[in-house]
Fold:
Amino acid sequence: DATLLFCFFLIIQTITFPALRCNCSTAECEKTGSQCETDGACMASTSFIDGREQHIRLCITRDNLVPPGQPFYCLSAKGLLNIHCCYTNYCNNIDLKVPSGECFILMPPLLSCGSWGPVELVAVIAGPLFLLCLLLLMGAFLYQYHQRAYSHRQRLEVEDPSCDTLYMTKDRTLQDLIYDLSTSGSGSGLPLFVQRTVARTIVLQEIIGKGRFGEVWRGRWRGGDVAVKIFSSREERSWFREAEIYQTIMLRHENILGFIAADNKDNGTWTQLWLVSDYHEHGSLFDYLNRYSVNIEGMIKLALSAASGLAHLHMEILGTQGKPGIAHRDLKSKNILVKKNCTCAIADLGLAVRHDSATDTIDIAPNQRVGTKRYMAPEVLDETINMRHFDSFKCADIYALGLVYWEITRRCNSGGIHEEYQLPYYDLVPSDPTIEEMRKLVCDQKLRPNIPNWWQSYEALRVMGKIMRECWYANGAARLTALRIKKSLSQLSIEEDLKV
Ligand SMILES: Nc1ncnc2c1ncn2[C@@H]1O[C@H](COP(=O)(O)OP(=O)(O)O)[C@@H](O)[C@H]1O
Ligand SMILES: [Mg+2]
Structure:
């Protein structure tokens, strides 16, 4: 706008006053009476050079008035030079003030006082103010955020049970934790967030077993050993199912493997599926019997504890804190662990099924013939098992328990005699028998593992032999129940005067 106005002024001036007269102080103007004429502008300037004031007046030609609106010739210079241009006759007959040095000293060179327009002034005042406001706002926001986070933390510590620091205090062992939670609460194990916390602070040590679905490791947690069963990501369903079964309400029992935690940890590439349980250094009953023979007391202890575990698994407990009946479906010496006190803990519940007695149904669609062929009951081998009837599965477990008893009893050292460890039917089928081989043997030929005559000479061995036969009936319904076996063996242990 200023440029336009200036141009307009110049045009008017050229039309109306073709020559502008100005005062002139230069040497050339002495002849013309200290005056000059121009088509441009009159100029007066005061400068401060070498400590002396100098006043100059002169004419500026129009072609020197560049750029339009703010010609260089008319610009004052930062505390040194004060210039005034004007466009009426003798208008430069004025005394300009000496440029003050103050601004030059105080202000940065670019902001010379004399040349500040309204925009600069607004910028100079409003800029710092704006910055100040911004800082204040940021301060207020940070303070509020901090306050909110703090009060949230406070609330968490007071109310929220999901804050696992409540449970995970340093000096508590897993056993304490699980004991507290199973006696006070649902009886089905640790809360999920505690399971996750435990699982993620385990340090794996060594492989201790390999099974159907992956590897079993010994791990360390807070100075104690735990077992970690690691499933491959393809086996997610098996992992989930086993974790689900272990967390059946009221399942915990001294002769069932103590479950600690399930965790699915996504490491970005694949999902690691963990089941954490108590660690038993003796390993499986299969490993134990291979390594050691047992005396009568040891045999009864193993057999009775296995029966107790299975009886608890099979048993339905009624009421709100009750448990459903559970059938194992893969009972064998490799799926039973031996604890430090030489009693058994039933493990590997991955194939188990639960009975819903209210509707008389089984909690998953039971697939045909799962489990280990060598331990399959005759009705499973020939597929005559009534899968709609839950008790059929319990009876099949009892057949397998009978085979496990045979494995234990062979290793019993009585009168200085014991046999080497062997799998059931070791002498009748090859190492990885087919279902057909097993069916011919068990269903068609009705063969069972051999019960030696000399067992009759020892009461404990005789009782064990009798129990086995009653576990092996072709008719599942005729077999003993786990509870019945438990009672017979308890009786035997009293007769043998054992502190079992
Ligand atoms: N808690 C444990 N303590 C010690 N050894 C174990 C434990 N759990 C499993 N094992 C070992 O690992 C083997 C395989 O474990 P298991 O649970 O049967 O897995 P799978 O379902 O793959 O058969 C067992 O036979 C046993 O030797
Ligand atoms: Mg197994």
